[in-house]
Amino acid sequence: NAGVIQTPRHKVTGKGQEATLWCEPISGHSAVFWYRQTIVQGLEFLTYFRNQAPIDDSGMPKERFSAQMPNQSHSTLKIQSTQPQDSAVYLCASSPGTGYEQYFGPGTRLTVL
Amino acid sequence: QQKVQQSPESLTVSEGAMASLNCTFSDRSSDNFRWYRQHSGKGLEVLVSIFSDGEKEEGSFTAHLNRASLHVFLHIREPQPSDSALYLCAVRGGTGSNRLTFGKGTKFSLIP
User: Fold this and answer.
1) CB contact under 8 A, B100 and A102
2) How confident is the model at residue B95 (pLDDT cuts 50, 70, 90)?
3) Of A43, A45, A56, the CB nearest to B88
4) How far apart are CA B72 and CA B66, in angstroms?
């Protein structure tokens, strides 16, 4: 079992460019979570899917951020018109179902210049 | 909205000494409390997950939950150099949510 896979591991974008982050959950897991980690704010919840349906996106910034889960094997987090304050480590986690342990990927470090 | 706070911000102990980390939460309806460890540049590794008041031991890690006082502690018995890392407390639930709310972490290191 390869665990949760996140690609790329590092991404550098210029201000105003778009960034797409990928997450492949553990096979058979029905829940996928996205979190963001910065030095100042710590680790913050962004959004969560269950059986590919969006369940809770209350942590997502209202503008420029969107997440999708087109099939059970991957989810994407897209940031349009990236800003320096979007620089963070974006973590994806998957879970066998609601209420079970969440298994985290290694994260994608996004740097916006 | 759930608030999770951790103390101290950083902790250094001598090798062989017991280490205690503190986490407080705000929502008494929370149903699950977890401690994670994160080595620099790495992902999160779950150490202990506890659901009810009392203690739960996993190897050299013991979590102690006191829901009435809104505290959950992590004790590290005979820490090793490999235990030097960021320790994160996460709380699930409160108002039926499945999301985890994290504290900002305690940076733990060992004096050899």
Assistant:
1) yes
2) low
3) A43
4) 6
